[in-house]
Description:
- This protein is an alpha/beta fold.
- The protein has one domain: Maf protein (Alpha-Beta Complex).
- Helices cover 30% and strands 23% of the residues.
- It is built from five helices and seven strands.
- Strands 1, 2, 3, 4, 5, 6 and 7 form a seven-stranded mixed sheet that branches.
- β1, α1 and β2 (34-37) form a beta-alpha-beta unit.
- It is globular.
- 34% of the residues are buried.
- The mean pLDDT is 91.
Amino acid sequence: MSHALKKPDIILVASANPHKIEELQQILQPLSIVLKSTRDFPDGEDVVEDLPDLEGNALKKARYWNSFTGLPALADDTGLEVDTLNGAPGVYSARYAGEKATYADNVNKLLTELQGKSNRKARFRTVIAFVDGEHETLFEGICTGEITEKPSGEKGFGYDPVFRPDGYDKTFAELEPEVKNNISHRGLAVNAFADYLGDIKSE
Length: 203
């Protein structure tokens, strides 16, 4: 029988991305949880995301950082899955055009692959893994939409300029951050995690 869940005071986020930490902090603020990032532990290693699915990579990162720091660890992996490309780029989204690819390189490759294709349906999927040494829990967020013919918008990053979510006439890169966070794959996954923490009884 596993121990009862206890709400953590500190969570290590397996990321050095300040925007990601800030976004998480905003959503988790009502729960009075302090977030640390991998920048706070410079002796830690970069975890190689070499597993075939988002769930595996997120768990691998969370397990490593939980073991390394002794803190409850949160990690995520995100992929863009395009119907007509059989789910590609998927787990390779960040390096679709090569290991050193820029956001623009990846977007250009995607648009090239979709030239002449009428089905441009796609979905963003984020998987969050939370590992506290006793429990491992996964949370998923999905946002469906389509890939536009050309980039539009200056906000966001990655594939945001070419992803138009269902029900909107703007790309992620054209939407205000508050709007995007409410409907985005990452926002949905983080909110599911926040709900989970909110349901835990504090001791």
